[in-house]
Amino acid sequence: MAPAAKLFSNETYRTISRCSKASTSRFRITKDLRKELLHWRFLDSWEGFLPWRDERHFQLTLFSDASFSGWGACLKLSGEAPVEARGYWDGTSRGYHIAAKETRALFNAVQCLLAPSFSARVDVFVDNNWIAGKNKFPNPR
Questions:
Q1: Is 84 inside any structural domain?
Q2: Are the CB atoms for 27 and 58 separated by under 8 Å?
Q3: Residue 104 lies inside a defined structural domain of this protein
Q4: In a domain, 93, yes or no
Q5: In this structure, are 37 and 64 located in the same domain?
Q6: Is 74 helix (H, G, I), strand (E, B) or coil?
C-alpha cells in the first residue's frame, strides 16, 4: 500500500484491530468506516497507475542565481561535464522582488536541467535569507 494511504485507512485498521482482539468476524460498519470504504471505491473503475519511486540515492550539485535582467544555472553530476542554462526575465518578472527571482531561477534550473521524467526528492540549500524564510518580505509601498 502507498504510504499516503495511511491517511485514508485509519478506520479500516481500527476495525481490523478491534475484530482481531475480540476473536470475531462480525463487526458493525460505523459511519466513519463507511465513509472510508466509499473513498476507496474509485479504485473499482480506475485504470491508471502511479509510478513507484526508486529508493536510490544520488547527489548532484545545482547552482542557480538571479539578477535584475535574468537567471542562470549550472548542473554538475559526478564524472560529467557541467551543463548550463540561462534566460532573461520578461517585463513582468523583471519587477519581482529579488527573493521571487531567486526562487524562479531555481525552478527554471530544475525544469531546464533535469529531465521531465526526473522523479526524486530534492533538498535545496540556498544562500538567500529571503528564500530560506529567515526574513519577511517588505511591505509593498
A1: yes
A2: no
A3: yes
A4: yes
A5: no
A6: strand
Please check whether residue 102 is in contact with residue 131, taking contact to mean a CB–CB distance below 8 angstroms: yes
Q: Are 7 and 36 in contact (CB under 8 A)?
A: no
Q: Is the same domain home to 107 and 70? A: yes
The pTM is what?
A: 0.53
Q: How far apart are CA 36 and CA 14, in angstroms?
A: 12
Degrees to nearest 5, angle at CA 78 with 73 and 80:
70
Report residue 110 as a C-alpha cell: 530544475
- Coil, strand or helix: which one is 72? strand
Q: Can you name the residues that pair with 75 across neighbouring β-strands?
A: 62, 83
| pLDDT, tens digit (0-9, with 9 covering 90-100), for 81-118 | 999 999 999 989 999 988 889 889 999 998 888 876 67
Query: What is the three-state SS of 1-47?
Result: CCHHHHHHCHHHHHHHHHHHHHCCCCCCCCHHHHHHHHHHHHHHCCC
Q: Please indicate, yes or no, if residue 67 is contained in any of the structural domains.
A: yes
Residue 74 lies in domain: 60-113
- Pairing between β-strand 60-66 and β-strand 83-88 as defined by DSSP bridges: unpaired
Q: Does 107 share its domain with 75?
A: yes
* Count of the separate structural domains present in the chain: 2
